[in-house]
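U., I forgot to send this yesterday:
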Amino acid sequence: MKKATVGAVVVGSAAVVALIVRHRMRKTSKWGRAKAILKEFEEKCATPDAKLKQVADAMTVEMHAGLASEGGSKLKMLISYVDNLPTGDEEGVFYALDLGGTNFRVLRVQLGGKSGGIIHQEFAEASIPPNLMVGSSEALFDYIAAELAKFVAAEEEKFHQPPGRQRELGFTFSFPIMQTSINSGTLIRWTKGFSIDDTVGKDVVAELEKAMHRQGVDMRVSALVNDTVGTLAGGRFSNKDVSIAVILGTGTNAAYVERAQAIPKWNGPLPKSGEMVINMEWGNFRSSHLPLTEYDHAMDTDSLNPGEQIFEKICSGMYLGEILRRVLLRMAEEAGIFGDEVPPKLKNSFILRTPEMSAMHHDTSSDLRVVGDKLKDILEISNTCLKTRRLVVELCNIVATRGARLAAAGVLGIVKKMGRDTPEESGQETIVVAMDGGLYEHYTEYRKCLENSLVGLLGEEMSTSIVFKHANDGSGIGAALLAASNSLYVEDRS
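Result:
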Protein backbone atom coordinates (compact mmCIF):
# COMPACT_ATOMS: atom_id res chain seq x y z
CA MET A 1 0.00 0.00 0.00
CA LYS A 2 2.83 2.32 0.90
CA LYS A 3 4.58 1.42 -2.35
CA ALA A 4 1.48 2.37 -4.33
CA THR A 5 1.30 5.68 -2.53
CA VAL A 6 4.90 6.43 -3.29
CA GLY A 7 4.32 5.48 -6.92
CA ALA A 8 1.38 7.85 -7.13
CA VAL A 9 3.46 10.65 -5.67
CA VAL A 10 6.22 9.98 -8.18
CA VAL A 11 3.75 9.95 -11.06
CA GLY A 12 2.12 13.13 -9.78
CA SER A 13 5.47 14.88 -9.50
CA ALA A 14 6.38 13.86 -13.02
CA ALA A 15 3.12 15.33 -14.31
CA VAL A 16 3.81 18.63 -12.56
CA VAL A 17 7.33 18.72 -13.99
CA ALA A 18 6.00 17.94 -17.45
CA LEU A 19 3.41 20.72 -17.09
CA ILE A 20 6.09 23.20 -16.05
CA VAL A 21 8.32 22.11 -18.94
CA ARG A 22 5.46 22.50 -21.42
CA HIS A 23 4.63 25.91 -19.98
CA ARG A 24 8.23 27.02 -20.31
CA MET A 25 8.44 25.62 -23.83
CA ARG A 26 5.25 27.43 -24.75
CA LYS A 27 6.65 30.67 -23.36
CA THR A 28 9.93 30.08 -25.16
CA SER A 29 8.06 29.25 -28.35
CA LYS A 30 5.97 32.44 -28.06
CA TRP A 31 9.02 34.56 -27.44
CA GLY A 32 10.74 32.90 -30.37
CA ARG A 33 7.76 33.85 -32.54
CA ALA A 34 7.97 37.48 -31.35
CA LYS A 35 11.67 37.61 -32.19
CA ALA A 36 10.96 36.08 -35.60
CA ILE A 37 8.38 38.80 -36.34
CA LEU A 38 10.89 41.42 -35.20
CA LYS A 39 13.65 40.01 -37.40
CA GLU A 40 11.39 39.78 -40.45
CA PHE A 41 10.24 43.38 -39.95
CA GLU A 42 13.81 44.60 -39.49
CA GLU A 43 14.92 42.88 -42.70
CA LYS A 44 12.04 44.34 -44.74
CA CYS A 45 12.73 47.84 -43.35
CA ALA A 46 16.45 47.64 -44.08
CA THR A 47 17.96 50.73 -45.72
CA PRO A 48 21.54 49.92 -46.71
CA ASP A 49 23.39 52.75 -48.45
CA ALA A 50 23.03 51.02 -51.83
CA LYS A 51 19.23 51.03 -51.52
CA LEU A 52 19.15 54.64 -50.35
CA LYS A 53 21.17 55.69 -53.38
CA GLN A 54 18.61 53.91 -55.58
CA VAL A 55 15.84 55.84 -53.81
CA ALA A 56 17.76 59.11 -54.31
CA ASP A 57 18.25 58.37 -58.02
CA ALA A 58 14.54 57.57 -58.38
CA MET A 59 13.68 60.86 -56.64
CA THR A 60 15.88 62.75 -59.11
CA VAL A 61 14.23 61.03 -62.08
CA GLU A 62 10.76 61.91 -60.78
CA MET A 63 11.85 65.51 -60.21
CA HIS A 64 12.91 65.81 -63.86
CA ALA A 65 9.60 64.30 -65.00
CA GLY A 66 7.53 66.61 -62.78
CA LEU A 67 9.36 69.68 -64.07
CA ALA A 68 8.85 68.58 -67.68
CA SER A 69 5.05 68.55 -67.67
CA GLU A 70 2.00 68.80 -65.44
CA GLY A 71 1.02 65.31 -64.32
CA GLY A 72 4.28 63.86 -65.61
CA SER A 73 5.23 62.51 -62.21
CA LYS A 74 3.88 61.58 -58.80
CA LEU A 75 5.88 64.62 -57.67
CA LYS A 76 3.84 67.69 -58.53
CA MET A 77 6.94 69.95 -58.68
CA LEU A 78 4.77 73.06 -58.32
CA ILE A 79 6.09 76.40 -59.54
CA SER A 80 5.85 78.73 -56.54
CA TYR A 81 6.45 81.97 -58.47
CA VAL A 82 8.96 82.82 -55.75
CA ASP A 83 11.92 84.06 -57.77
CA ASN A 84 12.90 86.81 -55.38
CA LEU A 85 13.94 85.32 -52.04
CA PRO A 86 14.79 87.47 -49.02
CA THR A 87 18.33 88.82 -48.98
CA GLY A 88 18.50 90.15 -45.43
CA ASP A 89 18.30 93.75 -46.63
CA GLU A 90 14.51 93.98 -46.23
CA GLU A 91 13.25 96.78 -44.04
CA GLY A 92 9.89 97.79 -42.64
CA VAL A 93 6.84 96.23 -40.98
CA PHE A 94 5.15 93.29 -42.72
CA TYR A 95 2.31 90.95 -41.84
CA ALA A 96 1.48 87.29 -42.31
CA LEU A 97 -1.70 85.26 -42.17
CA ASP A 98 -1.12 81.54 -41.63
CA LEU A 99 -4.22 79.46 -42.40
CA GLY A 100 -3.27 75.82 -42.02
CA GLY A 101 -6.42 74.21 -40.65
CA THR A 102 -8.99 74.87 -37.96
CA ASN A 103 -6.70 77.44 -36.31
CA PHE A 104 -4.96 80.38 -37.89
CA ARG A 105 -2.42 82.98 -36.85
CA VAL A 106 -1.75 86.56 -37.76
CA LEU A 107 1.79 87.90 -37.37
CA ARG A 108 3.61 91.21 -37.49
CA VAL A 109 7.33 91.28 -38.24
CA GLN A 110 9.55 94.35 -38.14
CA LEU A 111 12.68 94.12 -40.28
CA GLY A 112 15.70 96.31 -39.72
CA GLY A 113 17.54 96.09 -43.03
CA LYS A 114 21.07 94.86 -43.67
CA SER A 115 22.34 95.13 -40.11
CA GLY A 116 19.08 94.89 -38.19
CA GLY A 117 17.55 91.54 -39.12
CA ILE A 118 14.23 90.75 -37.42
CA ILE A 119 13.84 93.50 -34.83
CA HIS A 120 10.41 92.55 -33.54
CA GLN A 121 7.78 89.88 -34.06
CA GLU A 122 4.43 89.14 -32.46
CA PHE A 123 1.39 87.07 -33.29
CA ALA A 124 -2.19 86.28 -32.30
CA GLU A 125 -4.08 83.02 -32.75
CA ALA A 126 -7.73 82.30 -33.39
CA SER A 127 -9.90 79.24 -34.01
CA ILE A 128 -12.37 79.00 -36.86
CA PRO A 129 -15.90 78.20 -35.61
CA PRO A 130 -17.17 74.86 -37.02
CA ASN A 131 -20.14 76.52 -38.74
CA LEU A 132 -17.78 78.66 -40.85
CA MET A 133 -15.95 75.56 -42.10
CA VAL A 134 -19.05 74.52 -44.02
CA GLY A 135 -20.67 77.87 -44.67
CA SER A 136 -19.93 80.46 -47.37
CA SER A 137 -16.56 81.77 -48.48
CA GLU A 138 -17.66 85.32 -47.69
CA ALA A 139 -18.47 84.40 -44.07
CA LEU A 140 -15.18 82.56 -43.61
CA PHE A 141 -12.96 85.27 -45.07
CA ASP A 142 -14.90 88.02 -43.28
CA TYR A 143 -14.22 86.28 -39.97
CA ILE A 144 -10.50 85.97 -40.75
CA ALA A 145 -10.31 89.59 -41.91
CA ALA A 146 -12.13 90.76 -38.76
CA GLU A 147 -9.51 89.04 -36.59
CA LEU A 148 -6.79 90.64 -38.69
CA ALA A 149 -8.48 94.03 -38.19
CA LYS A 150 -8.38 93.55 -34.40
CA PHE A 151 -4.68 92.69 -34.58
CA VAL A 152 -3.89 95.80 -36.63
CA ALA A 153 -6.06 98.07 -34.48
CA ALA A 154 -4.13 97.07 -31.35
CA GLU A 155 -0.68 97.75 -32.78
CA GLU A 156 1.60 100.40 -31.38
CA GLU A 157 2.05 103.65 -33.29
CA LYS A 158 5.67 102.79 -34.12
CA PHE A 159 4.42 100.04 -36.42
CA HIS A 160 2.19 102.33 -38.49
CA GLN A 161 3.05 102.61 -42.18
CA PRO A 162 4.45 105.87 -43.60
CA PRO A 163 1.90 108.11 -45.36
CA GLY A 164 0.84 106.75 -48.75
CA ARG A 165 2.17 103.26 -48.05
CA GLN A 166 -0.20 100.31 -47.77
CA ARG A 167 0.37 97.45 -45.33
CA GLU A 168 1.54 94.25 -47.02
CA LEU A 169 0.78 90.67 -46.10
CA GLY A 170 2.16 87.21 -46.81
CA PHE A 171 -0.65 84.61 -46.94
CA THR A 172 0.19 81.02 -46.04
CA PHE A 173 -2.68 78.93 -47.39
CA SER A 174 -2.18 75.22 -46.71
CA PHE A 175 -4.83 73.84 -49.04
CA PRO A 176 -4.48 72.59 -52.63
CA ILE A 177 -4.29 75.52 -55.04
CA MET A 178 -3.16 76.14 -58.59
CA GLN A 179 -0.86 79.12 -58.18
CA THR A 180 -0.80 81.58 -61.08
CA SER A 181 1.54 84.30 -59.73
CA ILE A 182 3.36 85.26 -56.56
CA ASN A 183 0.12 86.66 -55.14
CA SER A 184 -2.69 84.72 -56.78
CA GLY A 185 -3.90 81.15 -56.80
CA THR A 186 -7.08 79.22 -57.59
CA LEU A 187 -8.48 76.85 -54.98
CA ILE A 188 -8.62 73.25 -56.21
CA ARG A 189 -10.44 71.76 -53.20
CA TRP A 190 -10.85 72.15 -49.48
CA THR A 191 -9.38 69.57 -47.09
CA LYS A 192 -9.01 69.20 -43.28
CA GLY A 193 -12.75 69.25 -42.59
CA PHE A 194 -13.59 72.35 -44.68
CA SER A 195 -16.36 72.16 -47.26
CA ILE A 196 -17.13 75.51 -48.85
CA ASP A 197 -18.07 74.78 -52.43
CA ASP A 198 -18.54 78.38 -53.52
CA THR A 199 -14.78 79.03 -53.09
CA VAL A 200 -13.56 76.23 -55.36
CA GLY A 201 -12.19 77.66 -58.61
CA LYS A 202 -11.84 81.14 -57.13
CA ASP A 203 -8.68 83.14 -56.46
CA VAL A 204 -8.19 82.88 -52.69
CA VAL A 205 -6.13 86.08 -52.57
CA ALA A 206 -8.90 88.05 -54.28
CA GLU A 207 -11.43 86.61 -51.79
CA LEU A 208 -9.27 87.61 -48.83
CA GLU A 209 -8.59 91.10 -50.16
CA LYS A 210 -12.32 91.71 -50.72
CA ALA A 211 -12.99 90.60 -47.13
CA MET A 212 -10.25 92.89 -45.80
CA HIS A 213 -11.83 95.78 -47.69
CA ARG A 214 -15.24 94.96 -46.17
CA GLN A 215 -13.67 94.89 -42.69
CA GLY A 216 -11.82 98.16 -43.21
CA VAL A 217 -8.31 96.66 -43.31
CA ASP A 218 -6.06 98.63 -45.63
CA MET A 219 -3.74 95.80 -46.64
CA ARG A 220 -2.45 94.14 -49.80
CA VAL A 221 -1.46 90.47 -50.21
CA SER A 222 2.04 90.55 -51.67
CA ALA A 223 2.81 86.82 -51.48
CA LEU A 224 0.78 83.61 -51.49
CA VAL A 225 2.93 81.00 -49.77
CA ASN A 226 3.17 77.28 -49.17
CA ASP A 227 4.56 76.52 -45.70
CA THR A 228 7.63 74.70 -47.06
CA VAL A 229 8.43 77.59 -49.38
CA GLY A 230 8.05 79.86 -46.35
CA THR A 231 10.59 77.76 -44.47
CA LEU A 232 13.03 78.20 -47.36
CA ALA A 233 12.47 81.95 -47.37
CA GLY A 234 12.95 82.18 -43.60
CA GLY A 235 16.16 80.19 -43.83
CA ARG A 236 17.51 82.25 -46.73
CA PHE A 237 16.87 85.51 -44.83
CA SER A 238 19.43 84.57 -42.20
CA ASN A 239 21.73 82.42 -44.33
CA LYS A 240 22.39 83.06 -48.01
CA ASP A 241 23.48 79.44 -48.54
CA VAL A 242 20.03 77.99 -47.81
CA SER A 243 18.80 76.37 -51.02
CA ILE A 244 16.67 73.46 -49.75
CA ALA A 245 13.86 73.34 -47.18
CA VAL A 246 12.31 70.24 -45.65
CA ILE A 247 9.36 69.99 -43.29
CA LEU A 248 9.12 66.86 -41.17
CA GLY A 249 6.12 67.11 -38.91
CA THR A 250 2.68 65.53 -39.07
CA GLY A 251 3.28 65.40 -42.82
CA THR A 252 6.37 66.04 -44.89
CA ASN A 253 7.34 68.14 -47.90
CA ALA A 254 10.38 69.71 -49.52
CA ALA A 255 11.16 72.77 -51.62
CA TYR A 256 14.37 73.90 -53.29
CA VAL A 257 15.84 76.56 -55.55
CA GLU A 258 15.90 75.52 -59.22
CA ARG A 259 17.42 77.21 -62.24
CA ALA A 260 14.51 78.69 -64.19
CA GLN A 261 15.98 77.40 -67.44
CA ALA A 262 15.76 73.86 -66.09
CA ILE A 263 11.96 73.96 -65.84
CA PRO A 264 10.55 72.87 -69.23
CA LYS A 265 6.94 73.47 -68.17
CA TRP A 266 7.70 77.12 -67.24
CA ASN A 267 6.38 79.25 -70.10
CA GLY A 268 6.77 82.73 -68.65
CA PRO A 269 9.62 85.17 -69.05
CA LEU A 270 12.78 84.16 -67.22
CA PRO A 271 13.03 85.92 -63.86
CA LYS A 272 15.87 88.37 -63.31
CA SER A 273 17.33 86.15 -60.62
CA GLY A 274 17.37 83.20 -63.01
CA GLU A 275 15.94 81.10 -60.18
CA MET A 276 12.58 79.72 -59.12
CA VAL A 277 11.57 77.98 -55.90
CA ILE A 278 9.89 74.64 -56.58
CA ASN A 279 7.41 73.15 -54.13
CA MET A 280 7.99 69.43 -54.67
CA GLU A 281 5.08 67.93 -52.67
CA TRP A 282 7.46 65.01 -52.13
CA GLY A 283 5.13 63.22 -49.73
CA ASN A 284 3.52 61.68 -52.82
CA PHE A 285 6.81 60.16 -54.05
CA ARG A 286 6.84 56.42 -54.53
CA SER A 287 9.31 53.96 -56.00
CA SER A 288 9.83 50.22 -56.23
CA HIS A 289 13.00 50.80 -54.22
CA LEU A 290 11.12 51.95 -51.11
CA PRO A 291 11.32 49.25 -48.40
CA LEU A 292 7.61 48.73 -47.81
CA THR A 293 6.24 46.06 -45.46
CA GLU A 294 2.90 44.31 -45.08
CA TYR A 295 2.10 46.77 -42.27
CA ASP A 296 2.64 49.75 -44.60
CA HIS A 297 0.45 48.23 -47.30
CA ALA A 298 -2.33 47.50 -44.80
CA MET A 299 -2.14 51.00 -43.33
CA ASP A 300 -2.28 52.51 -46.81
CA THR A 301 -5.31 50.38 -47.75
CA ASP A 302 -7.13 51.49 -44.59
CA SER A 303 -6.29 55.18 -45.11
CA LEU A 304 -8.49 57.93 -46.52
CA ASN A 305 -6.16 58.24 -49.53
CA PRO A 306 -5.02 54.74 -50.53
CA GLY A 307 -2.19 54.71 -53.05
CA GLU A 308 -1.27 58.33 -52.32
CA GLN A 309 1.37 60.00 -50.13
CA ILE A 310 3.37 56.77 -49.84
CA PHE A 311 6.65 58.51 -48.96
CA GLU A 312 4.86 60.56 -46.30
CA LYS A 313 3.32 57.42 -44.82
CA ILE A 314 6.71 55.91 -43.99
CA CYS A 315 8.63 59.09 -43.06
CA SER A 316 6.33 61.51 -41.24
CA GLY A 317 4.97 61.95 -37.74
CA MET A 318 1.37 61.15 -38.61
CA TYR A 319 2.20 57.53 -39.34
CA LEU A 320 5.29 56.29 -37.45
CA GLY A 321 3.39 55.49 -34.27
CA GLU A 322 0.67 53.72 -36.24
CA ILE A 323 3.22 51.46 -37.96
CA LEU A 324 4.62 50.58 -34.52
CA ARG A 325 1.10 49.78 -33.25
CA ARG A 326 0.42 47.43 -36.14
CA VAL A 327 3.59 45.43 -35.50
CA LEU A 328 2.85 45.26 -31.77
CA LEU A 329 -0.69 44.07 -32.53
CA ARG A 330 0.62 41.20 -34.63
CA MET A 331 3.06 40.24 -31.88
CA ALA A 332 0.24 40.32 -29.35
CA GLU A 333 -1.96 38.14 -31.56
CA GLU A 334 0.65 35.60 -32.63
CA ALA A 335 3.17 35.64 -29.79
CA GLY A 336 1.17 36.83 -26.79
CA ILE A 337 3.79 39.38 -25.76
CA PHE A 338 1.22 41.15 -23.57
CA GLY A 339 -0.41 38.02 -22.16
CA ASP A 340 -3.00 35.51 -23.31
CA GLU A 341 -5.51 38.20 -24.30
CA VAL A 342 -4.87 40.86 -26.93
CA PRO A 343 -5.19 44.29 -25.24
CA PRO A 344 -8.39 45.81 -26.68
CA LYS A 345 -6.96 49.32 -27.04
CA LEU A 346 -4.07 47.99 -29.14
CA LYS A 347 -6.67 47.36 -31.85
CA ASN A 348 -7.54 51.07 -32.13
CA SER A 349 -5.97 52.73 -35.18
CA PHE A 350 -3.70 55.71 -34.48
CA ILE A 351 -4.05 55.37 -30.71
CA LEU A 352 -0.26 55.22 -30.45
CA ARG A 353 1.06 58.59 -31.60
CA THR A 354 4.59 59.38 -32.69
CA PRO A 355 5.36 61.65 -29.67
CA GLU A 356 4.70 58.64 -27.41
CA MET A 357 6.85 56.46 -29.67
CA SER A 358 9.62 59.05 -29.42
CA ALA A 359 9.39 59.10 -25.61
CA MET A 360 9.74 55.30 -25.49
CA HIS A 361 12.61 55.32 -27.99
CA HIS A 362 14.48 57.88 -25.88
CA ASP A 363 13.98 56.02 -22.59
CA THR A 364 17.41 55.55 -20.95
CA SER A 365 16.23 54.33 -17.54
CA SER A 366 17.59 50.96 -16.41
CA ASP A 367 14.11 49.44 -16.16
CA LEU A 368 12.70 51.30 -19.19
CA ARG A 369 10.15 52.88 -16.89
CA VAL A 370 8.91 55.34 -19.54
CA VAL A 371 8.11 52.47 -21.90
CA GLY A 372 6.14 50.71 -19.16
CA ASP A 373 4.26 53.90 -18.26
CA LYS A 374 3.34 54.68 -21.87
CA LEU A 375 2.08 51.15 -22.50
CA LYS A 376 -0.03 51.38 -19.35
CA ASP A 377 -1.35 54.91 -19.86
CA ILE A 378 -2.16 54.64 -23.59
CA LEU A 379 -2.89 50.96 -24.17
CA GLU A 380 -3.86 49.89 -20.62
CA ILE A 381 -1.16 47.20 -20.68
CA SER A 382 0.16 46.63 -17.15
CA ASN A 383 3.05 44.69 -15.65
CA THR A 384 5.18 44.37 -18.79
CA CYS A 385 8.50 42.66 -18.25
CA LEU A 386 11.84 44.26 -19.11
CA LYS A 387 12.33 41.89 -22.05
CA THR A 388 9.07 43.05 -23.62
CA ARG A 389 9.93 46.70 -23.04
CA ARG A 390 13.29 46.20 -24.77
CA LEU A 391 11.44 44.64 -27.70
CA VAL A 392 9.26 47.76 -27.97
CA VAL A 393 12.33 50.01 -28.00
CA GLU A 394 13.88 47.86 -30.76
CA LEU A 395 10.74 48.30 -32.84
CA CYS A 396 10.77 52.09 -32.26
CA ASN A 397 14.34 52.18 -33.51
CA ILE A 398 13.54 50.17 -36.65
CA VAL A 399 10.57 52.38 -37.61
CA ALA A 400 12.35 55.68 -36.89
CA THR A 401 15.60 54.64 -38.56
CA ARG A 402 13.86 53.64 -41.77
CA GLY A 403 11.91 56.92 -41.91
CA ALA A 404 14.93 59.11 -41.15
CA ARG A 405 17.22 57.37 -43.63
CA LEU A 406 14.61 57.57 -46.39
CA ALA A 407 14.18 61.30 -45.70
CA ALA A 408 17.96 61.62 -46.03
CA ALA A 409 17.80 59.78 -49.36
CA GLY A 410 15.15 62.27 -50.49
CA VAL A 411 17.44 65.20 -49.68
CA LEU A 412 20.25 63.45 -51.55
CA GLY A 413 17.94 63.21 -54.57
CA ILE A 414 17.45 66.99 -54.46
CA VAL A 415 21.18 67.61 -54.11
CA LYS A 416 21.75 65.35 -57.15
CA LYS A 417 19.10 67.24 -59.16
CA MET A 418 20.86 70.50 -58.30
CA GLY A 419 24.12 68.99 -59.56
CA ARG A 420 25.89 69.46 -56.25
CA ASP A 421 26.44 65.90 -55.03
CA THR A 422 30.18 65.70 -55.74
CA PRO A 423 33.09 67.97 -54.69
CA GLU A 424 33.76 68.88 -58.33
CA GLU A 425 30.15 69.88 -59.00
CA SER A 426 29.53 71.65 -55.71
CA GLY A 427 32.74 73.67 -55.90
CA GLN A 428 32.96 73.06 -52.15
CA GLU A 429 30.13 75.54 -51.61
CA THR A 430 28.09 74.88 -48.51
CA ILE A 431 24.60 73.45 -48.98
CA VAL A 432 22.36 74.59 -46.14
CA VAL A 433 19.09 72.71 -45.62
CA ALA A 434 16.46 74.63 -43.65
CA MET A 435 14.50 72.15 -41.52
CA ASP A 436 11.21 72.59 -39.70
CA GLY A 437 8.46 70.47 -38.19
CA GLY A 438 7.81 68.82 -34.86
CA LEU A 439 9.21 65.44 -35.88
CA TYR A 440 12.58 66.95 -36.76
CA GLU A 441 12.59 69.33 -33.80
CA HIS A 442 11.55 66.95 -31.02
CA TYR A 443 12.46 63.39 -32.10
CA THR A 444 16.20 63.53 -31.38
CA GLU A 445 17.07 60.01 -32.52
CA TYR A 446 15.23 60.58 -35.81
CA ARG A 447 17.00 63.90 -36.39
CA LYS A 448 20.48 62.54 -35.63
CA CYS A 449 19.90 59.51 -37.87
CA LEU A 450 18.73 61.70 -40.77
CA GLU A 451 21.68 64.07 -40.56
CA ASN A 452 24.29 61.35 -40.11
CA SER A 453 22.81 59.28 -42.93
CA LEU A 454 22.98 62.14 -45.44
CA VAL A 455 26.58 62.92 -44.51
CA GLY A 456 27.41 59.23 -44.97
CA LEU A 457 25.70 59.06 -48.35
CA LEU A 458 27.50 62.14 -49.65
CA GLY A 459 30.89 60.76 -48.64
CA GLU A 460 33.79 62.09 -46.59
CA GLU A 461 34.85 64.80 -49.05
CA MET A 462 31.36 66.29 -49.11
CA SER A 463 30.60 65.77 -45.42
CA THR A 464 31.60 69.32 -44.46
CA SER A 465 29.57 70.84 -47.29
CA ILE A 466 26.12 69.93 -45.97
CA VAL A 467 24.65 71.85 -43.03
CA PHE A 468 21.24 71.50 -41.40
CA LYS A 469 19.63 74.60 -39.93
CA HIS A 470 16.48 74.59 -37.84
CA ALA A 471 14.27 77.31 -39.30
CA ASN A 472 11.44 77.51 -36.81
CA ASP A 473 8.02 78.90 -37.84
CA GLY A 474 8.70 79.13 -41.57
CA SER A 475 5.02 79.09 -42.40
CA GLY A 476 4.50 82.36 -40.55
CA ILE A 477 7.69 84.42 -40.52
CA GLY A 478 8.64 83.10 -43.98
CA ALA A 479 5.38 84.43 -45.39
CA ALA A 480 6.04 87.89 -43.92
CA LEU A 481 9.58 87.84 -45.32
CA LEU A 482 8.27 86.95 -48.78
CA ALA A 483 5.81 89.81 -48.53
CA ALA A 484 8.84 92.00 -47.85
CA SER A 485 11.01 90.67 -50.69
CA ASN A 486 8.08 91.00 -53.11
CA SER A 487 6.90 94.34 -51.80
CA LEU A 488 5.47 96.97 -54.12
CA TYR A 489 7.88 99.35 -52.43
CA VAL A 490 11.00 97.25 -52.85
CA GLU A 491 12.58 100.00 -54.96
CA ASP A 492 12.23 102.35 -51.98
CA ARG A 493 14.90 100.37 -50.12
CA SER A 494 18.50 101.19 -50.81
